[in-house]
Design brief:
globular; 6 helices; about 170 residues; alpha/beta; zinc ion binding; nucleotide-binding
Amino acid sequence: MDFSLWGGGSMGSVVGEKITRLIEYATNNFLPLILVCASGGARMQEGSLSLMQMAKISSTLYDYQSNKKLFYVSILTSPTTGGVTASFGMLGDIIIAEPNAYIAFAGKRIIEKTLNKTIPEGSQVAEYLFHKGLFDPIVPRNPLKGVLSELVQLHGFFPLNQNSIK
């Protein structure tokens, strides 16, 4: 999900495999899971292999959350779009967004072309989506470590000090 690379932070099969392995590691070691999402969508150059990452990650998260009853926090940064939004971005037990983050499944232009309607300006920004109930709190980066530390402790995991969260 590195925007400095070709593909604009898109989720391809390598990203999907790495995230799946991370979730499996957290599951096997009974660890809380915090994923920071930033993506321009799926890597269309990989076709269906890229799209399958949504199902692969989601099913691994199902085992983590439903079968093992472990705690997952999703943090949505700007932008979080496409397959990341459609899968693990919105599956957190707690979903946190950054202020003014652009969060969408598809871009404004694609939606308007598909629906043949104009969508309201700002309808894909965190504050608007928060008021529609799409996620939990909006938290700026500065207090985020403290908020995450409290959430993890509230959910029965080991006490964290803020320096242990990178």
